[in-house]
Amino acid sequence: MDRVQDEKKPPNHDDTFNTIFPSLHNVSEDSGPRNYVDAPSPIRLKADTSSDEALKHIRTANNISISPELFEKLYLTPQKAVKGDLRNTFANPTPRLPRSPNADVAAGGFWFTLGSTLTPFYNAYGAYASDPTKPYEGLASEGFHASYGFFLLFMGFLSLLYLICALRTNIVFVTIFFGLFMTFVILTGSYWEIALDQASVAAKLQIASGAFAFLACLAGWWIFFAQMLASVDFPYQMPVGDISHLIRSGTERAQDKERFSA
Q1: How far apart are CA 68 and CA 100, in angstroms?
Q2: Helix or strand holding residue 64 (H, E)
Q3: Where are the beta strands (DSSP E) in the chain?
Q4: Could you tell me the pTM of the whole model?
Q5: DSSP symbol at 44
Q6: Can you tell me the distance from the alpha carbon of 182 to that of 40, in angstroms, rounded to the nearest whole number?
Q7: What distance in Å separates the CA atoms of residue 173 and residue 175, rounded to the nearest whole number?
Q8: pLDDT tens-digit map of 235-260
Q9: How far apart are CA 206 and CA 225, in angstroms?
Q10: End-to-end alpha carbon distance in the chain
């Protein structure tokens, strides 16, 4: 039986050949068994590797590992090279949303603070009441409005940081954070005017802050609708006004510096 099986084996047959993963072996007739001890180490590509260079290595290498950032750049980021001049006219229609855990925590912290301030259990406004049995009187006190204005002021500072970062994204995000910045700053002035017993001025400031908040909400719904269309690959996209090319990235500046120094 063994002799019959040996006769059926083709010339140069390797008993260790793996038929399930044939790419692990060199199946040419002139080559011997593969030397796995002296095999080259796998190529590792970093996130800052260009797409063309990464694809070149992938085509020529048998064993390669890439970072998650580079994988997203190669396979998840849509190509921006398109025909025509529409992008220069209407800007890049693809919305970009820089997500950060810090931004999520900041937004959650704002709503938690606002809710807890108006919840009697936390006694935020009751501490300003002259009569402990009437904590609601603290809402009309001078100290409560003055101190609450500082809370809104620093939310305005946070919106200003987001506004600066949005200059590397698109016009819609700039509109959102500009509207929020103006809303918080003007609301701060409104609360301080109430603390100074200037109700008429405070009312006008509240109207102005509401107008900027309405602008931010409109821009927010615009970017939300644009993201929904992009998520389902809708044939028509809403322009968001790409301005990422106006301010060069730090990576591009570093590459230029290395190019000139070389």
Answers
A1: 17
A2: strand 64-66
A3: 43-45, 64-66
A4: 0.61
A5: E
A6: 59
A7: 5
A8: 988 899 989 888 888 888 888 888 88
A9: 28
A10: 70
